[in-house]
From TrEMBL:
Transmembrane segments: none annotated. PANTHER family: ALDEHYDE DEHYDROGENASE-RELATED (PTHR11699). It comes from Sedimentitalea todarodis. Residues 470-493 are annotated as: Disordered. It comes from the Bacteria. This is Aldehyde dehydrogenase family protein.
Length: 511
């Protein structure tokens, strides 16, 4: 090596502090998961109750912080979404037992629940706190540990929300490290953690690129794609009620839910009634000039203008150069010909709902199928009383949720229907996803099945299943790494020694 090269060579490799911190969180989560998987059902429900209570108490505070940090949405609506992911979510899944072994005496099968282990969960900027609440609750109910990675635009409020839930869980007996959040997220960090062999499953909620990255990480993933919901209003519908549903849905949290309607479709014979009803419900129905201005503003380079994301109808109208009344809740551009691939038929995460009409029902179905290819597998809405058309519409649409006579944003997410309440909407095979349901805690548990021969004798009464789950421990062993605050803190020698020993045990297969 020449003298010049010797002096230019790096003398010290400076570690990436954020990445090191995230990796330690994953290590702590792996320890917590191994400890938590033996908790009894009563212990799990007690921890879930504590997490739900803590989340509900600060739902409004975190909603304000989320809007302040991201600039997206409405505080009142975010507060409601946060609350829905606490007690209501818990009550929906309270009777779903993912802890107790199941015995099928007739088929001579015993089933043992096996939690995934460590869940790595991505949270979007549009619904940061609600997603943190929701995914943390799923992990708690399924006896898994979770490491959350928020969108950088919502990292502060997400970290505070996760820390608040973690403290409540630990006070109720959960192991330290059960709920954690990455404080300094970045694309390289997320990619590194997603590919870690200590991650057992990824729940990816976000953009298409990130979901695809989750599926290609080498770890199991539950990924969901974008929405582009079409609402069909049949002539059999009560048009005023349908219009109210549409305006309420599209204005909710300034339309940043992926379940929000993007296009409303009716028949030519009914379009005049729809325009009148939408105006009465608080919509500004655009003329041709306003529609052109809105299209130019929202899709300046054939891509959605992120400046409009989660902003109010008045805000968007002002930027687009459209005059609207102070009570306007949504903007409704009108595209006369549904067969065209108009930019306004794409997903719009702001209070803009495109109206179009078809000459007959068959053309309406054909157009809806074409439009929902962008957002395949997601959601659609049907307004009307014609059950024959409802079934035909649902069968034809490439989606896994069709809500009837309710707002799609709340209905498809399970808050205005009896669908599972969820902020991770599986898009299934049509949307190139591994799950087509609203994701719940059952997707984070798999079962070992002990199966006896059909004709072989089997005395299942002698099988002792008490060791599968134990009562809540009275004392917790020392954690390998102390729980960190919102910012990364130095790790002591003792803590590092404990972490190294834990790693060695894991390598030997003793852990």
């Amino acid at each position: 090596m020449s003298e010049h090269m010797m002096y230019d060579a790096p003398r010290l490799a400076v570690p990436d502090r954020a990445l090191s911190s995230a990796r330690m969180k994953v290590g702590r989560a792996a320890w917590a998961a191994r400890y938590y998987k033996s908790f009894s059902r009563d212990a799990v429900l007690a921890i879930a109750e504590a997490v739900a209570k803590a989340g509900h108490e600060k739902a409004g505070e975190f909603a304000e912080l989320a809007v302040s940090e991201t600039g997206y949405g409405v505080v009142e609506h975010k507060t409601l979404k946060n609350r829905l992911c606490t007690y209501e979510l818990l009550e929906f899944y309270r009777d779903m037992d993912l802890v107790t072994p199941r015995v099928d005496a007739e088929r001579k099968i015993v089933e043992l629940p096996k939690p995934a282990g460590v869940v790595f969960a991505l949270a979007p900027a549009t619904n940061p706190v609600a997603t943190v609440y929701y995914k943390a609750m799923l992990a708690v109910l399924s006896r898994n540990a979770i490491v959350l990675s928020p969108h950088p635009a919502a990292r502060h409020v997400s970290a505070r929300a996760a820390e608040h839930l973690a403290q409540a869980a630990e006070a109720a007996g959960a192991p330290a490290g059960l709920i954690q959040c990455v404080e300094e997220p970045s694309v390289p960090l997320v990619q590194d953690i997603m590919s870690s062999d200590r991650i057992n499953v990824i729940i990816a909620t976000g953009g298409t690129a990130m979901v695809r990255a989750a599926y290609s990480s080498g770890n199991p993933a539950l990924g969901v794609g974008p929405g582009n919901a079409v609402a069909y209003v049949d002539p059999s519908a009560k048009v005023d009620a349908a219009a109210t549903c549409l305006v309420n849905s599209k204005s909710f949290d300034n339309s940043i839910l992926c379940t929000s309607e993007s296009v409303v479709l009716t028949l030519d014979s009914n379009r005049g009634n729809m325009e009148r009803a939408l105006r009465s419900a608080g919509a500004h129905v655009c003329n041709e000039v306003d529609t052109d201005r809105l299209r130019d503003y929202l899709f300046p380079n054939d891509s959605f203008n992120l400046e409009a994301l989660g902003k109010s109808a008045q805000w968007v109208a002002e930027r687009a150069g459209i005059r609207v009344g102070p009570s306007t809740r949504i903007l409704v551009p009108v595209v006369a010909t549904p067969g065209q691939d108009d930019l306004l038929f794409r997903e719009k995460l702001c209070p803009v709902l495109t109206l179009t009409s078809a000459v007959d029902y068959q053309q309406a179905v054909t157009f809806a199928k074409h439009t929902m290819r962008r957002g395949a597998g997601h959601s659609a809405a049907f307004h009307g009383d014609d059950t024959t058309r409802l079934v035909a519409f649902s069968q034809a649409m490439p989606v896994y949720r069709v809500v009837v006579n309710v707002p799609c944003s709340q209905g498809a997410a399970g808050f205005d229907t009896y669908l599972p309440p969820s902020f991770t909407i599986g898009t299934g095979f049509a949307g190139r996803s591994s799950v087509g349901e609203n994701v719940g805690p059952q997707h984070l548990v798999q079962w070992t099945r002990i199966a006896h021969g059909k004709d072989a004798p089997a005395d299942l009464d002698k099988i002792d299943l008490r060791a599968v789950s134990t009562e809540r421990p009275t004392a917790q062993p020392t954690t390998p790494v102390a729980r960190q605050a919102d910012t990364a803190s130095p790790v002591s020698r003792d803590e590092l020694r404990q972490l190294i020993l834990e790693e060695l045990r894991s390598l030997k297969g003793d852990a």
